[in-house]
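User: Here's a protein and a ligand (flavin-adenine dinucleotide). What would the complex look like?
Assistant: Let me lay out the input and then the predicted complex.
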Amino acid sequence: MINSLPMTAIPAEAEALRAPVRAFLAQALKEVPLEKRIRSWMGFDADFSRALGARGWLGLSLPPQYGGAGRNPFFRLVVVEELLAAGAPVGAHWIADRQSGPLIAKYGSDEQKRLYLPGICRGELFFCIGMSEPNAGSDLASVRTRAVKTDAGWRLNGSKIWTTNAYRSHYMIALVRTSGAPEDRQRGLSQVLIDLHLPGVTIRPIRDLAGDEHFCEVAFQDVDLADNALIGQEGGGWEQVTAELVFERSGPERIYSSVVLLDAWIDYLRSTGRLDPASTGTLGRLAGNMAVLRAMSISVTGQICAGASPAVEAALVKDLGTELEQLIPTMIADALGAQPDAALPAPLLRALAFVTQVAPSFSLRGGTREILRSMIARGLGLR
Ligand SMILES: Cc1cc2nc3c(=O)[nH]c(=O)nc-3n(C[C@H](O)[C@H](O)[C@H](O)COP(=O)(O)OP(=O)(O)OC[C@H]3O[C@@H](n4cnc5c(N)ncnc54)[C@H](O)[C@@H]3O)c2cc1C
């Protein structure tokens, strides 16, 4: 049925989810100020995540026997669009819902699915991503954290960095070396699931430019993991992490990081009762870019529904999407700056200052612009 749909259409049954989600958010966030809503990705609210889980809006594509809804990815697209447009605090469940759950569903054992997926769907289990290390970011194949086989399971030593919300998460899924040496690159890598409360795990939050603490440094010193900590195949970590990155990059998230600011600026323009030609031009350009990117994001979701793994297409949407996310604060600042005598609302200015400070990170998290462009060039046969 999906195959017979136009590539840029959200199926009606998924679209039907939009109204109840929007109504719930209007109620749940009605007292939340702009300064909090602007932090949406970084907003961490376990009660809010549980409320989404209770309504069946997490783990939408996970199998029903493990607590999911067994729906196609368009359902999650609709929910994510509404969450980000409203500036909902998605940080607690974000990673588990987007990639850890789907990864466990794809590669995990039946025991792992039973242990973790129901809690993810209820919005009760929070995960973080253990890929980057102090000397392995873009060059992920050079990770040095090592898990050595023991009689009881695995002994883990090493460290991860920039791990979003590690100090507030229950588990990390980490890419580690289980055999060979760093020179072996992709060979000998595996993924392990780490309970972050085990002895030997030390987590240090890192304060960012805006004063927030979300990403962390995580050290492992002789951490003993059980046998069932290994996800999928030993040595299959590279293929698995590549699939995980498609989950990470293929959603609609990478277009909307600045959308709450855009909305706040539009509200301000409305409140002035006039629309000058320069602001009209800015609005038209941003809305036009967003409409095209949204259509491309929907199309990527259509490809996933059709059984493809559109890594290059997802990289293209992420690269162009983060460019738009970064353009929004710049263009709004220019538009406001062009009217130096206007009395501007303080919350709008604070929101603009915040997005301007964090915007450079939009094209770093999830893979940098240069890395995505080299993937796109390779996909097009240009290198
Ligand atoms: C807000 C935020 C949240 C994050 N959350 C997580 C997380 O939860 N888990 C996690 O594992 N990581 C996370 N990261 C880390 C992120 O994935 C890395 O920062 C990113 O992959 C880049 O790695 P690096 O910082 O080591 O930079 P480097 O790899 O050292 O790159 C430095 C610069 O060199 C460029 N460069 C590197 N190699 C090449 C090349 N071959 N060709 C051309 N240019 C190149 C890069 O594009 C970049 O501009 C997060 C980062 C941010 C900003």
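Summary: The longest helix spans residues 277-305.
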